[in-house]
Amino acid sequence: MKQSQELLIVLSLVIAAVGAACSARVDVEAERQALRNADAEYSKAGTAKDFERVFALYAEAAVIYPPNTPSITGKENVHKFALDFAAISGLALNFQPLEVQVSSAGDLGYTVNIVDLKMNDPQGNPISERIRDVHFWKKEANGQWRVVIDIWNSEQPVASPAASEPSK
After folding, report:
1. Which of 58, 97, 115 lies closest to 81, judged by CA?
2. Long-range interactions of 56-63: CB distance < 8 A, separation 24+
3. CB–CB of 127/143 below 8 Å?
4. Distance CA 91, CA 49 (A)
5. How much is the pLDDT for 33?
6. Rounded distance, CA 155 to CA 115, Å?
7. CA 142, 72, 121, 163 torsion: positive or negative?
8. What does the pLDDT look like over 108-160, one tens digit per residue?
9. In CATH, what is the architecture of 25-157?
């Protein structure tokens, strides 16, 4: 009988603990604000061309999907890409946040920015482009939001093959 009572007490405690864990609510709006702050830090660092600060916001297993370029996987390769990108002649970036979303679990989210990008072409002529920049973020165990996927593309239409071929 005593063993049955002890088992009942242990079982009751386990059920209460599981129930409490299931009823724990995530403050999605607080997480959205935390992600908005992380994204603002990313944008500020990018505008300042402080790519070491930008790089610090990437997760260890981050993947970058630049346009017209193979994927870049892993933090070491992301770091090299960031340093090469920072060295582009005439580089200037201006971020405009559009959207911040967080999952109901509060551990995944994404941000969307429009970025006005200016740089020099290989001949040294200034060029500009407007890009859509999407980051998928994951909240780490320490509460820090980190970029796990970074992908961007141009708002400009792709030149038609006929327009890019020389006249005969």
Report:
1. 58
2. 57/145, 57/146, 57/147, 58/146, 58/147, 58/148, 58/150, 59/138, 59/140, 59/146, 59/147, 59/148, 61/148, 62/146, 62/147, 62/148, 62/149, 62/150, 63/148, 63/149, 63/150
3. no
4. 8
5. 97
6. 10
7. negative
8. 999 999 999 999 999 999 999 999 999 999 999 999 999 999 999 998 887 76
9. Roll (3.10)
pTM: 0.79
Residue whose C-alpha is closest to residue 105's, from 22, 23, 28, 18: 28
Per-residue pLDDT tens over the stretch 42-58: 999 999 999 999 999 99
Phi, psi of 23 (to 5 degrees): -85, -5
Separation CA 41–CA 35 (nearest Å): 10
**Both tokens of residue 116?**
């006005």
| E strands in 15-155 | 58-65, 72-73, 92-102, 108-120, 126-139, 145-154
d(CA 99, CA 113): 7
Q: Is the pLDDT of residue 4 over 90?
A: no
Neighbouring C-alpha atoms within 13 Å toward the C-beta of 92: 7
